[in-house]
Amino acid sequence: MSTKVAVVTGSNKGIGLAVVRALCKQFNGDVYVTSRDVGRGEEAVKTLNSEGLKPKFHQLDINDLNSIKNAAAYFKGKYGGVDILINNAGIAFKASDTTPFGVQAEVTLRTNFFATRDVLTHFLPLVKAGGHVVNVSSMLSASGLKQCSPELQQRFRSEDITEDELVALMQRFVDEAKKGEHKQGGWPDMSYAVSKIGVTVRLNTLSLDFYLTRLQNMLKKMSTVVSTVASQQEGPEFNSTFSLSVWSLHVPPVLAWVLPRWVLPRWVLPRYSGFLPQSKDMHFVGIG
Ligand SMILES: NC(=O)c1ccc[n+]([C@@H]2O[C@H](COP(=O)([O-])OP(=O)(O)OC[C@H]3O[C@@H](n4cnc5c(N)ncnc54)[C@H](OP(=O)(O)O)[C@@H]3O)[C@@H](O)[C@H]2O)c1
């Protein structure tokens, strides 16, 4: 059986380092400290070695797309994917920091939301069946959400918010913050909280996307199987009637398009979405 592997972003110090320490003691597989700075990462590994623990190291700067792609290629090549991904890397300006609000908004969202999203984009396809993805959010996301306008709260709480819509909303916050118009736009005065709202909601869209993609793949497979059977059976007996092949070739693809986009998000998932984060194949967890 192949060696299991756990990857923790931003784990040269703080909560990330503590998570690596705990995983080294409890997880049956390789555990990776990742850090944007090789020196700081290797120091963290030495610290853990001095405690008798044996983590491994790989460089990963989540703000650098090449670094993300290199790391993803490394884990795919060496382990065939990842079993645990913990999106921990994050930044926060101190309350006393005098950097203009617009700059703080842009810098904070770049790392906490947009870069975390990039990691998910490149690592999610690598997460193995039964794997776990954890996004480290913050309780401030909940208090920040309460301070958003009712319209924004409605969108963030909705079951059918898509990744594209979320990205557009996060970008809107940055743009309005840079113009000093975020309060009129319905946003709180807290970039960190908004970034973590994005991290939390992205997890929900992730669960939804994950299920919709699976459903679409399933329906596509079904349509291929049915049309193959139909084309094998198509003989004179089928040609005279409204043929099975017409049904099999056209209806499943139409269903494959319509169900995930319209029927599920609007009528089914809002009622039965409780099961979403509990997939047997992959687990999505948000903490903080
Ligand atoms: N501490 C809290 O009370 C608290 C509460 C709720 C949630 N959180 C969340 O928990 C996570 C960890 O927080 P923490 O308190 O442990 O913070 P921390 O001690 O400041 O550690 C943050 C880690 O993220 C890394 N990092 C920052 N930008 C990065 C990038 N572009 N690429 C890769 N790594 C990067 C840092 O690396 P460098 O050393 O190179 O800067 C550091 O290793 C964050 O997501 C934070 O928002 C913290």
UniProtKB/TrEMBL annotation:
Organism of origin: Neolamprologus brichardi (Fairy cichlid)
Entries under Gene3D superfamilies matching the protein: NAD(P)-binding Rossmann-like Domain (3.40.50.720)
Family: Belongs to the short-chain dehydrogenases/reductases (SDR) family.
The UniProt record lists the keyword Metal-binding: no
Swiss-Prot/TrEMBL keywords: NADP, Oxidoreductase
Pfam families from the UniProt entry: adh_short
Name this protein carries in UniProt: Carbonyl reductase [NADPH] 1-like
Signal peptide stretch: none
UniProt GO MF annotations: carbonyl reductase (NADPH) activity
Record PANTHER family: CARBONYL REDUCTASE (NADPH), CARBONYL REDUCTASE 1-RELATED
UniProt keyword NADP present: yes
